[in-house]
Amino acid sequence: MSDAFDERRRGLEEEYFHRKNQEAIEKLREKMKVSAEAKAAGTSLMKCPRCDNALKEHKIDEVSVDTCKQCGGIWLDSSELERLVNHEGEGFFGRLWSAFVDKSSNAE
Ligand SMILES: [Zn+2]
């Protein structure tokens, strides 16, 4: 009697983990599909933080800038802003960056 119960329990466990694996594989396939579609369309994988629209990626002087057609937002990753600042030197972004870095080092 207990053998039949154990067998049934094992069967249910196997079925459960098989279903979980299938769900994980489907999620991964969906991510890969979205990534391939974004790459083909020249858009970023990220959505606009303001309006959730697709972002278009542009390369400007080796810096990748994401723009949103819907709200006009222009988005940079932190490393991209740093590269722009280094590229620009003592211009507006350079002064802005120095002010930001000075304030965050005083806060510590
Ligand atoms: Zn937007």
Explain how this protein is built:
The chain is 62% helix and 19% strand. The protein has 108 residues and is α+β, with helices and mostly antiparallel strands. It has a domain of 41 residues. A 4-stranded antiparallel β-sheet has the order 1-2-3-4. The longest helix is centred in the N-terminal third of the chain and has 40 residues. It is elongated and about 80 Å long. It starts with a helix and ends with a helix. The relative contact order is 0.07. Bound molecules: zinc ion (ZN). Zinc ion binds next to loops.
Chain-wise SSE layout:
Layout (H helix, E strand, L loop, with lengths): L1 H40 L1 E5 L6 E7 L2 E6 L5 E2 L2 H11 L3 H16 L1
Antiparallel strand pairs: 1-2, 2-3, 3-4
Zinc ion binds next to loops.
Question: What's this model, at a glance?
Answer:
Helices cover 62% and strands 19% of the residues. It has helices at 2-41, 78-88, 92-107, and strands spanning 43-47, 54-60, 63-68, 74-75.
Number of beta-strand segments: 4
Strand order of the largest sheet: 1-2-3-4
Small molecules held by this entry: zinc ion
Quaternary status: single chain
Treating each run of at least 4 consecutive H or I residues as one helix, how many helices? 3
- Unreliable sequence segments: none
The chain-level mean pLDDT equals: 83
Rounded to an integer, what's the Rg over CA atoms? 24 Å
Instruction: Bin the helical content.
Output: 55-70%
Which word captures the global form? elongated
Biggest sheet architecture: 4 strands, antiparallel
**Percentage of β-strand residues:** 15-25%
Q: What gap, in angstroms, lies between the N and C termini?
A: 67 Å
The arrangement of helices and strands along the chain is HEEEEHH
Secondary-structure-based class equals alpha+beta
